[in-house]
């Protein structure tokens, strides 16, 4: 039997040694970002995706082994475990094969077959299964036993058929054949539940729908499953029945006599009553998991792009959470995200205090040295943007729309209450909008990613798998950017490699008590911040005002001596090495290779010295909607408009064009050539130009196209 490492290496196309060393690091408590960044020599420069795949596949194989052991123990307790059977169990590689082997030995509830066996009909079933008898009635007559409940020849033969049906169902060959047939030829068919046509209108596309399951896109599978769960659709998944029965007959029919005819009847019964429902359930689970994984992949990619959106940076910001009747909540926050002032203005109906509101905004801009205005894109967002841009300021102040999805979730959360206990949810929501403009990553980590609204069927997928994938994505983004330890929130610090909630809180408590950290070395004074935590976290934590310039960079403290040696060899200071490209060009990295430090790490170090602590996110880009378009009634077919990609799904992308209703660019309208993945063309928050193709005001649907748009 192959080892886990050999199986994983074969599946991922990498060496066994790479897998072994990666698992060793993971088992030792190393995180995926740490291994990918600082242990390249051990893994052969595997990236985060490969390391995550190794971790997850190893976990699956461990779970498979646990189930294997449980099955062996169960069969052994029954006294039925032979060496051949144990070897067979140890050699299977999938859970379905394992369960097929176990099925005949699995403790059963009362079935038609077990009742027939209790009546003493198993010998008759064996005789019929041999298919050598032409006159089975004569043999069946000897099994009549009124006391056991066998009152006629027909009863005896029917009981024998029940036993044969169960044998067929428990046959590994039969299950493998039917499973394969389901995989390749099963159709998924959906019908509307009678009387639910009006109530289930949103599932209208699936009221009468049938297609080959293996070709059905994940989003359609999930939509049909949701319709079934909601009680509006009835689903069936099955291959052609006659083909399935013919396959089984080919396996089990050995003759052409009366016994063979009874076996044939048992096969049909077995398929309809036992095999088909069992394999359909299994195939449903397989395709649900496949659809879940695809939906999660799309969702995680969207979250990754959103978290890595360009930050405006450290600016004094005025943020507005727009509204009509209740007014617009205005807050002023400084460059570190600290709330300085809040109040409410009423520039819109019914109050329409336009002049007073404009004066207040102007005064706040001057009083708090505001450099940018963030406007939430929800209700009254475009109207508020128009109002702000109508004001004449004494200096240039950029005004930008900000996606406020999830801001209400944050404002009502325990995190927000902890940050702003004395303020209501409207103030907290406005602060969140402003901070999102300054640093989307730092603010969005405070919100459950499922509440941000950039997914596809995220509430229908396996929640445990979704959460696991989202945690990986958030941790990857946080560590890719790095965290300024003296200003980061507890929530942001929680995702730093090696920390978690407890250490993040300890770090914040220490900072509050002792003031700003002056060096990475000082991190070791934080309670429970031991050597292992320091190893995992230090490289991702930045200390901007540290005397040691390397504390501001992604160079790990374990490599500081290498940089010192480099500067010494070049007779310069570390500061000069960072500032002067001509000095860095003189570094012969081969000279510093050791048993533990190889070329990949040395190349990373030199690259980091060129731009210490550089932010990998792209530069912030100003954007504004078409000034003449504010609602769906302003749209005309053929219009070319600027927009922002707000969500990406398997079937296309949604774009905000500033009319309070996102439009859809179907995947077929994204490029002149065929594409299978919308991420090939667009990214979340990308600025795009789109053409209006169709407007359905009644159903609030806008169809857009990117084809031939310049």
Describe the structure.
This protein has 710 residues and is an alpha/beta fold. It has five domains: 4-105, RuvA domain 2-like (Arc Repressor Mutant, subunit A, Orthogonal Bundle), CATH 1.10.10.650; 112-299, Orthogonal Bundle (Tex N-terminal region-like), CATH 1.10.3500; 317-438, YqgF/RNase H-like domain (Nucleotidyltransferase, domain 5); 493-610, Tex RuvX-like domain-like (DNA polymerase, domain 1, Orthogonal Bundle); 632-705, Nucleic acid-binding proteins (OB fold (Dihydrolipoamide Acetyltransferase, E2P)). The chain contains 29 helices and 15 strands. The chain has a five-stranded mixed β-sheet, with helices on both faces. A five-stranded mixed beta barrel has the order 11-12-13-15-14. Strands 2-1-3 form a three-stranded antiparallel β-sheet. The mean pLDDT is 92.
């Amino acid at each position: 039997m192959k080892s886990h490492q050999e199986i994983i290496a074969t599946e991922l196309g990498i060496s066994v040694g790479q897998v072994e060393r990666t698992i060793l690091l993971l088992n030792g408590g190393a995180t995926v970002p740490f291994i990918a960044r600082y242990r390249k020599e051990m893994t052969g420069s595997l990236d985060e995706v490969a390391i995550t795949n190794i971790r997850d596949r190893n976990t699956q194989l461990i779970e498979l082994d646990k189930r294997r052991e449980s099955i062996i123990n169960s069969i052994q307790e029954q006294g039925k475990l032979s060496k051949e059977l144990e070897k067979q169990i140890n050699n299977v590689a999938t859970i379905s094969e394992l369960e097929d082997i176990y099925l005949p030995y699995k403790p059963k509830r009362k079935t038609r077959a077990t009742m027939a066996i209790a009546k003493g009909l198993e010998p008759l079933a064996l005789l019929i299964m041999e298919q050598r008898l032409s006159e089975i009635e004569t043999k069946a007559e000897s099994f009549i036993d009124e006391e056991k409940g066998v009152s006629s020849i027909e009863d005896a033969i029917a009981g024998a058929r029940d036993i044969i049906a169960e044998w067929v169902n428990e046959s590994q060959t039969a299950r493998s054949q039917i499973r394969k047939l389901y995989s390749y030829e099963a159709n998924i068919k959906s019908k509307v539940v009678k009387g639910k046509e009006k109530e289930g209108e949103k599932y209208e596309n699936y009221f009468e729908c049938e297609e080959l399951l293996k070709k059905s896109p994940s989003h359609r599978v999930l939509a049909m499953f949701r319709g079934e769960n909601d009680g509006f659709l009835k689903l069936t998944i099955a291959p052609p029945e006659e083909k399935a029965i013919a396959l089984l007959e080919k396996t089990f029919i050995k003759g052409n006599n009366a016994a063979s005819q009874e076996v044939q009847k048992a096969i049909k019964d077995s398929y309809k009553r036992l095999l088909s429902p069992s394999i359909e359930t299994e195939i449903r689970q397989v395709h649900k998991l496949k659809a879940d994984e695809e939906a999660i992949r799309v969702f995680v990619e969207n979250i990754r792009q959103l978290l890595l959106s360009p930050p405006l940076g450290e600016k004094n910001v005025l943020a507005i959470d727009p509204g009509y009747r209740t007014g617009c909540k205005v807050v002023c926050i400084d460059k570190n995200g600290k709330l300085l002032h809040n109040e409410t203005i009423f520039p819109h109906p019914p109050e329409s205090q336009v002049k007073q509101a404009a004066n207040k905004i102007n005064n706040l801009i001057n009083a708090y040295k505001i450099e940018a205005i963030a406007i939430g894109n929800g209700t009254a967002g475009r109207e508020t943007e128009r109002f702000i841009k109508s004001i004449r300021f004494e200096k240039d102040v950029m005004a930008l729309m900000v996606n406020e999805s999830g801001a209400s979730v944050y404002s009502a959360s325990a995190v927000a209450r902890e940050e702003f206990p004395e303020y209501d949810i409207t103030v907290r929501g406005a602060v969140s909008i402003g901070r999102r403009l300054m640093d989307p990553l730092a603010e969005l980590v405070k919100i459950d990613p499922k509440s941000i609204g950039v997914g596809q069927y995220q509430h229908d997928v396996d929640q445990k798998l979704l959460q696991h994938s989202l945690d990986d994505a958030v941790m990857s983004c946080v560590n890719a950017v790095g965290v300024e330890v003296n200003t980061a929130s507890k929530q942001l610090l929680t995702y730093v490699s090696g920390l978690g909630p407890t250490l993040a809180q300890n770090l914040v408590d220490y900072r509050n008590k002792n003031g700003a950290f002056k060096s990475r070395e000082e991190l070791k004074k934080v309670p429970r911040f031991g050597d292992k935590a320091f190893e995992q976290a230090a490289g991702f934590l930045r200390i901007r005002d540290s005397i040691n310039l390397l504390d501001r960079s992604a160079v790990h403290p374990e490599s500081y001596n290498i940089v010192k040696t480099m500067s010494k060899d070049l007779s310069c200071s570390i500061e000069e090495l960072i500032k002067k490209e001509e000095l860095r060009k003189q570094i012969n990295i081969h000279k510093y290779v050791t048993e533990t430090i190889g070329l990949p790490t040395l190349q990373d170090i030199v690259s980091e010295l060129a731009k210490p602590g550089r932010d990998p996110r792209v530069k912030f880009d100003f954007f504004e909607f078409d000034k003449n378009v504010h609602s769906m009634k302003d749209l005309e077919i053929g219009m070319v408009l600027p927009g922002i990609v707000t969500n990406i799904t398997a079937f296309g992308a949604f774009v905000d064009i500033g009319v309070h209703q996102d439009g859809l660019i179907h995947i077929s309208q994204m490029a002149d050539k065929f594409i299978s993945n919308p991420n090939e063309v667009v990214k979340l928050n990308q600025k795009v130009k789109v053409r209006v193709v169709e407007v359905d005001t009644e159903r609030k649907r806008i169809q857009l196209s990117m084809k031939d748009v310049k």
